[in-house]
Specification:
The protein starts with a strand and ends in a 6-residue tail after the last helix. It contains 9 helices and 15 strands. Strand 5 and strand 6 form a beta hairpin. The N terminus is likely disordered. The strands form 3 sheets. Strands 1, 10, 11, 12, 13, 14 and 15 form a 7-stranded antiparallel beta sheet that branches. It has a 4-stranded antiparallel beta sheet with strand order 2-9-4-7. The chain is an alpha+beta fold. Helix 5 packs across helix 6 and helix 6 runs antiparallel to helix 8. The chain is globular. Helices cover 30% and strands 33% of the residues. Bound molecules: adenosine-3',5'-cyclic-monophosphate. Adenosine-3',5'-cyclic-monophosphate (CMP) binds next to strand 5, strand 6, helix 4 and helix 8.
Length: 281
């Protein structure tokens, strides 16, 4: 059966610190927030009670349409999750400003400056009136830093030996480690299904093997074999097209995956990095 890996050591949360900041969330808000937190990869290592402590440290922020919530280049303060409404995210590079994302209910932003101790990398402006769940940087860092270090250590040597990531710096590979999702598949289980049109993830084999198959004239043909460090799933990402083949676990196979949005946020254009390693099929 498919199993999501649980990462490293549990986090010790300083409850005193959390309760100090416990502000105006209703019980209903707290239930909603907890279910949102469970879906965020960054927090996937937290136990249920750690999540409860974290929830109690969030507070609510309301902004009007047009308000700037985060300004690029400024120092980071809070991490935000959108409760309701929409926010536009703009990145300015070489005096050109681009709208890169629209954050809607359940989406989050403001993590990068806090995680990497750098100035804000984008400007976030409320597109509509918005309600946000906010978490102060002290607690955010406290919850994430030791887990991030564990993950980086766990993946360091593996990522160093993945050919597609060779052109990245150690720091960039560390950022990838922060958002990798590890999943184990049983023999014969589909990791990717041919023609699937909702493709936004690419995969690297962490342990075991997988094969790519294609259906043609009523038969299924093996077209590729993947071993540790090999990657797949990049074609659909590059071409914005449906998956071009099935990928099936051969024996027990563990893969790590990263989605397009995380990749773009962390490293700039995922397309550009993948294109440097374009393979012909
Ligand atoms: P931070 O730099 O702390 O504040 C701005 C936030 O915008 C950033 O964290 C991310 O959460 C978010 N964001 C979304 N897309 C991008 C992007 N392409 N580049 C940088 N930040 C982004």
């Amino acid at each position: 059966a498919r199993r999501k890996a649980v990462s490293a050591a549990p986090i010790q949360i300083n409850l005193a610190l959390c309760s100090e900041l416990s502000l105006n969330l209703t019980d209903e808000d707290k239930v909603k927030l907890k279910s949102l937190l469970k879906k965020i990869i960054l927090f996937s290592h937290l136990t249920d009670s750690e999540l409860d402590s974290m929830v109690s440290a969030f507070f609510e922020v309301e902004k009007k349409a047009g308000d700037v919530i985060i300004s690029q280049e400024e120092e980071g303060d809070n991490f935000y999750i959108v409760d309701s409404g929409e926010c536009d995210i703009y990145v300015t590079k070489k005096s050109e400003t681009r709208l890169v994302e629209c954050a809607r209910a359940g989406d989050y932003f403001g993590e990068l400056a806090l995680m990497y101790n750098c100035p804000r990398l984008a400007t976030v402006r409320a597109r509509t009136n918005v309600k946000l769940f906010a978490l102060g940087q002290e607690i955010f860092k406290h919850l994430l830093c030791s887990a991030a270090q564990d993950r980086r250590k766990q993946y360091e040597s593996f990522l160093q030996n993945v050919p597609i990531l060779k052109s990245l710096t150690a720091e960039e590979r560390g950022k990838i480690a922060d958002v990798l999702v590890q999943t184990t598949y049983a023999d014969g289980e589909y990791i990717i299904k041919e023609f699937d049109s909702c493709a936004d993830t690419f995969f690297i084999v962490y342990e075991g093997e997988a094969i790519a198959t294609k259906s043609a004239e009523g038969a299924v043909k093996e077209v590729m074999k993947y071993m540790k460090g090999d990657y797949f799933g990049e074609l659909a990402l590059l071409k914005h097209a449906p998956r071009a083949a099935n990928v099936v676990a051969k024996g027990r196979c563990t893969v790590v995956s990263i989605d397009r949005a995380s990749f773009n946020r962390l490293l700039g254009s995922c397309d550009e990095i993948l294109r440097r390693h374009w393979r012909t099929y």
